[in-house]
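I am writing to request your help with a piece of structural work I have in hand. The matter concerns a single protein, recorded as an amino acid sequence and a row of backbone structure tokens. Could you please explain, in whatever detail you think fit, how the structure tokens follow from the sequence? Thank you for your consideration; the sequence and its tokens are set out here:
>
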Amino acid sequence: MTSAFVNKAENKGEEGYTLIELLVVLAILSLIVAFAAPKVIGYFERSKTQAAAIEISTLMSSLDLYRLDTGHYPAATEGLKALIVKPEHAHNWHGPYLDRTDGIIDPWGRPFLYTPPHSGSSAVIMSYGADGKPGGADEDQDVTSVH
């Protein structure tokens, strides 16, 4: 009888958390998420812009390899697909020049824009950023091969 009484006395106050204690913990977690989420989202968007710049650099290198093999850049009608699938009139094409077929899609899910060189200019590859419109700032900024 004494041992049963002692066990009950040892467990007193250990029934669990109260509703108020749980609500306080949830409120603290909510505040942490509210302050941290915008920063995390900002880092994620900046990383997409940086990824687009890296992909554009890779595409420019692939275009240079294409030009070395064929003697010219792809025409506007052929576009960047010429790096993956041999165009009809591309002699000495030794592609594919990209490992992945999704390499011509920007981090926001839209195709990169390609302008072949003309009158001594170089080829241009660009993405309009998160908003898909020319111009913009931060994550909406245009990312281009022209510096």
Notes: The longest helix spans residues 19-70.
